[in-house]
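Here's a chain:
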Amino acid sequence: KTVLRMLALGVSLVLVGLVGGGWAYDIPYCDGRQTIVHLFEWKWTDIAQECERFLGPNGFCGVQVSPPMEHIVASGDGYPWWQRYQPVSYKLESRSGNEEQFVDMVNRCNAVGVRIIVDAVVNHMTGLGRSGSGSGGSSFNADNRDFPGVPFGPSDFTPRDQCPSSDGSIHDYSNVQEVRNCYLVGLTDLYGASEYVRQKVSDYFNHVIDIGVMGFRVDASKHMWPGDLEAIQGLTHDLNTAAGFPSGARPFFFHEVIDQGGEPITVQEYFGVGRTTEFRFGKKIAWGI
């Protein structure tokens, strides 16, 4: 247990990008505490115990948890970590636990001052070629764009004529349309401009906000249009005052935007919709040495 804790705390700390002056260091709703630990692939029951036994008493701000929504079950690949990043529905039924266990974790962590940040996978659903039942029992067929657990159908995915690549997948990262309108490694790309898709994603966000989470780390934001993200975030509820958040408090968002330089899509495009993960942090530290 001690080894797992040191790995989690020493290696997997989340580094949130800074977007301006000193105020940007502050994480809201944490009373000056700034460290978010990423408990990757932990079960909800174990995270609840970790909040009570270690994170709360030692002044941690929050925990980024693995995606809680229903996902594929990739038994043939040995149940790898990446199955969590292929949604089947937005039901809270995952390898980490069920909805009851998720709610219990959020409540127990909030009670000791540790906030929960959800790793949100909303750019896409599962990969092409996959079908069957998800971790919560929902049926799906990716090739037919059929996800009845949401429900999503063919019209909820990015129209083929908006993707300029020959096979519908991303190959050219110098082409903004391709990066944002084509399929990322064969994953079925949700049509973020659709009002229906925006509502379904925001419904998922609102469900966990009402449970008591503080915010979201949005996966693959680089592959979503900033305007679509802004529209989705604009549909979210205020944070739950029963969880100890002030009245009118807004969800905390930070976005995965891989920007190593040399490409047209930059982190600066996303500063208007939240913080960003700084992938050049190590380089910038090295430059200062």
